[in-house]
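I had to read the description of the data format several times before I understood it. The format is easy to grasp once an entry is in front of the reader. For illustration, here is how one protein appears when written out as sequence plus structure tokens:
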Amino acid sequence: MPVLVITGTGTEVGKTVATAAVAAAAVAAGRSVAVLKAAQTGVRPDELGDAEEVARLAGPVTARELARYPEPLAPATAARRAGQAPVRPPEVAEAAAKLATEHDLVLVEGAGGLLVRFDEAGGTLADAARLLRAPVLLAASAGLGTLNTTELTARELRSRDVDLLGVVIGSWPDHPDLASRCNVTDLPEAATAPLLGALPAGAGALPPAAFRATAPDWLAPRLNGRWDAEAFTAREAPAPFA
């Protein structure tokens, strides 16, 4: 798995922190890692982008972004309004493939959800994943509403013959409500893919050293971690209604 594409069920679901955790666990396992942000929006030139934030949290990784647009919009819209060239899926695939010749693992982080448009032709992260023949890791929210967006994303990936590696809960609350606890069991069924981790709420605010030391505890062995899905489900899923 030299390239892994990471997307979310939408915005603000913990995708960047999940990317950082995957990167940190891979580095801890002795792998060289690159992070590629296909299109960064809503960030000024003097601010840290998502790829740089991943590097800050995860440690010694190569951080790259292909384009940066100032307004917090979908990449195609942000590029058009800024009068800049859009990023196209073949460019994403080419950049990731080049990084893969120099690193053990390349993480390609999208913007928003799977079908957010990169360009005026409707190119998306799903198109880049298909060109790369790379699996996708889906970051999902924990609570009410996540099953619908998770299943829709999983169906879209299957329709494009793109492999869904699994689902990671981007932010597991300190005090999960009933919906979140039920979703521990229901998310893998909605995705028809395994649950591969759960990041604690506030993980991205940890000091980098603490983040790097703890990240493997949040991810399954498939992602170079030591998180146990069965134990997590047994602990967090609610008892049947009586």
Remarks:
- The first strand starts at residue 3 and ends at 8.
